[in-house]
Description:
Shape: elongated
Largest sheet: 6 strands, parallel
Structural class: alpha/beta
CATH superfamily of the largest domain: HAD superfamily/HAD-like
Radius of gyration: 18 Å
Number of helices: 10
Distance between the termini: 5 Å
Number of domains: 2
CATH architecture of the largest domain: 3-Layer(aba) Sandwich
CATH topology of the largest domain: Rossmann fold
CATH class of the largest domain: Alpha Beta
Helix content: 40-55%
Amino acid sequence: MSEIGLPSGIRACLFDLDGVLTPTALVHAAAWKETFDGFLRHLEGPEFQPFDATTDYDEYVDGRPRADGVRTFLASRGIELPEGDEDDPPDHDTVHGLGNRKNIVVLEKIRQDGVKPYPGSVRYLEAVRAAGLRTAVVSSSANCRDVLVSAGIEHLLDVRIDGVVARERGLRGKPKPDTYLEAASDLGFGPGEAAVFEDALVGMDAGRAGRFGYVVGVDRTGQAEELRRHGADTVVSDLAELLGATA
C-alpha cells in the first residue's frame, strides 16, 4: 500500500463530487426535500409524509441522475408521473419538470452560500497528483463544473464526466458503471488500474460492477457498514485519512 493509501497498481483516481470532494450532498438533500415536500403537500394535502433528507436521500436519490432520483423516490411512495421532456418548465408535474424544479432550488442555494471543498479532499487530491496519478471527477450532477469552479478545485482534476457529458455520450448513470469506466478510459487506463472514491451506495455498486482496482467508501453520514456491504474495499470519514496509510 502506497503513502496515498492505494495499492501499487493504481494509476488513476476517480472521485465522486457531492459528499466526497465537496459538502454539496447536504445542499442537494435540502433541495430535494424542499422540492418533494412541496409536491407531496400539493398532491396529498397537509397530512403528507415528508421526504427524509437522510434516509430517503441515501436510499432513492443520492448518486443517481436527476430524473432517476425522481422516478425512484416517487415509486417508493406508489406515485408515477409522466416523463415529460428534458426542458419541461419547473411547474410541470412530470419527472423532468420536478427534476428541473429541484435544480432551480439547488442552484439558488449554491449561489447564496457558495461552495467550499473538504480540506482533507484538497490535501488528498494534491498528494495523488504529486505521486503522478491522474484524476477525474465522476458526478451525475449537471452542475458539476459550476461547483468545481466555485470550490476552486477544477485545476486538480484532469477529466470531468458529469451529467452533461453522460447525456452527450449516452452513458447510463450509477449504479451502472458506465460513467466511471468512461472516466478511466478518458484518462488512458483500464478499470483495474483505477480507484473509485464514493459516498453513495449506488456509487459503491458502480465500482463493484465495473471491477475497479480499488473502491474507497467515504462515510460522512454514519453508513460505513452499508458502504462495505455494497463493495467498499476500505471506508474512511475523510480522504486525508488515506495519507500515510499502510496495509
